[in-house]
């Protein structure tokens, strides 16, 4: 039975898509069967994985899946060995009102994914940077939340918003939701500020697991710009090693 992980943070620009993309590749590389789900109307994960082919999925994407216009079998794209994708599309925003007005709207994604739970070891969902029906659906369908965090002052303080949302979801739609951990992203040891913020993070949220850090690396940005994972772009670099370490940590916690 697949473990469902939401990569989520209500703050934008923290690296949710980069984390989803490269963690998915890392788990697949370690022999795990992985399904990535792009539920962000900006469809950055989809574009990173299939490029301009995204235009061909207007009637076969996560939005049409949630409105029951498509079946789960119709929307899954094979990316590579052990790695599949349910794409987003530029029409996803238009589906929001339809989903908001539908019966049992918080569970649309959960019910849609349920048939393929046995087919995957990990289902990882990339979320929009906002509190809305897509994020609620994602958290309702998930076993765990993985929170990428850029170690700025407002980023650390703003974590409380994410924890408040998780508490609400646990009370209303998914009492099994758990925090997998916080991933300090774009981390650098060249200045003292990130290390100071990391110390503050541990003091503010002592019960939150802090997972391996992902370094600030130009290679990550270049890889994504070329539609590649960091493993395809720079397999022996420090960023690749960091994502592999994170994947092994995730496996050790979950399994």
From TrEMBL:
It comes from the Archaea. Residues 4-178 form the AAA domain. InterPro entries: AAA_dom, DNA_Partitioning_ATPase, P-loop_NTPase. PANTHER family: COBYRINIC ACID AC-DIAMIDE SYNTHASE, P-LOOP CONTAINING NUCLEOSIDE TRIPHOSPHATE HYDROLASE. This is ParA family protein. It comes from Pyrococcus kukulkanii.
């Amino acid at each position: 039975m697949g473990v469902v992980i939401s990569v989520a943070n209500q703050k934008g620009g923290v690296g949710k898509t980069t984390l989803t993309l490269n963690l998915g590749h890392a788990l697949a590389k370690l022999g795990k069967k992985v399904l990535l789900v792009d539920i962000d109307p900006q469809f950055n994960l989809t574009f990173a994985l299939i490029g301009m082919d995204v235009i061909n999925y207007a009637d076969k994407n996560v939005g049409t899946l949630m409105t029951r216009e498509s079946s789960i079998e119709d929307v899954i794209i094979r990316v590579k060995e052990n790695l599949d994708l349910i794409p987003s599309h530029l029409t996803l925003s238009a589906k929001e009102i339809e989903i908001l007005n539908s019966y049992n709207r918080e569970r649309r994604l959960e019910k849609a994914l349920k048939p393929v739970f046995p087919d995957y070891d990990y289902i990882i969902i990339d979320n929009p940077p906002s509190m809305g029906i897509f994020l609620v659906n994602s958290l309702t369908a998930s076993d765990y939340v993985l929170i990428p965090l850029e170690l700025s002052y407002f980023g650390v303080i703003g974590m409380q918003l994410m924890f408040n949302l998780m508490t609400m979801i646990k009370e209303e739609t998914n009492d099994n939701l758990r925090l997998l951990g916080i991933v300090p992203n774009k981390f650098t040891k060249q200045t003292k500020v990130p290390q100071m913020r990391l110390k503050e993070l541990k003091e503010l949220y002592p019960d939150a697991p802090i997972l391996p850090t992902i370094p600030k690396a130009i290679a990550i940005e270049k890889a994504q710009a070329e539609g590649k994972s960091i493993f395809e772009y720079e397999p022996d670099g420090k960023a690749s090693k960091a994502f592999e370490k994170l994947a092994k940590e995730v496996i050790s916690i979950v399994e």
